[in-house]
Design goal:
The chain is α+β, with helices and mostly antiparallel strands and 185 residues long. The strands form two sheets. It has a six-stranded mixed β-sheet with strand order 5-4-3-6-7-8. The chain has a two-stranded antiparallel sheet with strand order 1-2.
Length: 185
């Protein structure tokens, strides 16, 4: 009863309002039936049941983080948008890629105006700082976009070596990037 009263107060104050068919829910079409009564034209069929079961199965089995074996090569995938930079550390297990750790950060102030390449570098630095033990204990392979891997692909691989330091006043990361052409940055 207390909830109903609270809802009434919120409605009266204008903080919330009743929405019959919001646009994020599929609008149900009202159809006149033979007896001139309006009814909803939605029928739950076998196809809907299969789709619903598939959705429940998918939601019940989220990808779990996996443990990296010592010295095992890891892959870091970087992504940047106008509002966030993120990275995912991945390991390969029997030709399947399994997530080890994920990071994300919302750029602040001047960071929001970085060009795309600088945002990717910012994502790499953020990842290297937060995941320092992984970067120091494993060879890291770098890519900027997640793509389906092709065994026959001979795409060039970038290597990253990270060294970090920290003190009570600050911390930092030294990053060495080796391009496929052998150039060290």
């Amino acid at each position: 009863m207390a909830i109903a009263e609270e809802v009434k107060k919120l409605l009266a104050a204008g903080f919330i309002r009743k929405i019959d068919y919001p646009n994020w829910i599929s609008n149900v079409v009202m159809v006149k039936k033979a007896n001139e009564v309006l009814q909803k034209s939605f029928e739950w069929n076998d196809e809907c049941e299969v789709a619903f079961k598939n959705l429940k199965e998918y939601l019940a089995s989220p990808p779990l983080l996996s443990r990296a074996e010592p010295g095992e090569p890891l892959y870091v995938y970087l992504a940047s948008t106008a509002t966030t930079v993120s990275s995912v550390l991945i390991r390969e297990d029997k030709k399947l890629q399994r997530p080890v750790y994920c990071t994300s950060r919302i750029p602040q102030g001047a960071e929001t105006r970085y060009p795309r390449i600088e945002k990717l570098a910012f994502a790499l630095i953020t990842s290297a700082r937060r995941l320092r033990p992984y970067y120091q204990a494993h060879p890291i392979k770098f890519t900027e976009e997640i793509e389906e891997s092709n065994e026959d692909s001979s795409e060039p691989i970038w290597f990253i070596e990270v060294d970090g330091s920290s003190s009570s006043e600050s911390s930092g990361a030294g990053i060495i990037i080796k391009t496929p052409d052998g150039v060290t940055i």
